[in-house]
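A further point concerns the way the authors explain their paired sequence and structure data. The central task, working out the structure tokens from the amino acid sequence alone, is never made concrete. I therefore recommend that a typical entry be quoted early in the introduction. An entry of this sort, consisting of the sequence and the corresponding backbone structure tokens, reads as follows:
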Amino acid sequence: MKYIKRYWQIIFPILVMLLIWSFSAQNGESSDSLSIPLAEKLGLTNGVVRKIAHFLIYAMLGASLANFFRSIEGKKFPKLKAILLYILIAVAYSCIDEYHQSFIPDRNSNPIDVLIDSLGAIAGISAYIAAHSLIRTKHKNNPLIR
């Protein structure tokens, strides 16, 4: 069971990256066909829904990266230097993804999206650290909780 958990911890960030890549690989029309109906249901503009989606998916990426790297560290939680590495990985992936998007018909590359992605990754990493710290504090005498 322990090994399955460890494999999942590396597979999940890769799956999130593949999901991001697949969304970015859609042409403008296909991408709009997903976001416009959701925007209408929520009563928001298409642009706002897209920015929220950027933020949330990179929050997932940030949290999954933090979880993976924390599993490598063991019981010790990473220092600020390591956390900055997680952020750097997410930001680098965002830059690569935006560059990739510049080659897709009816899509463009937007530096604002990189900023939103970065903030999402920071939020995801922060939420993961807060949740993990809370769980560790609550169950500090339980050897099964790392």
Q: What stands out?
A: The mean pLDDT is 88. The helical segments are 2-24, 28-42, 46-73, 80-101, 111-138.
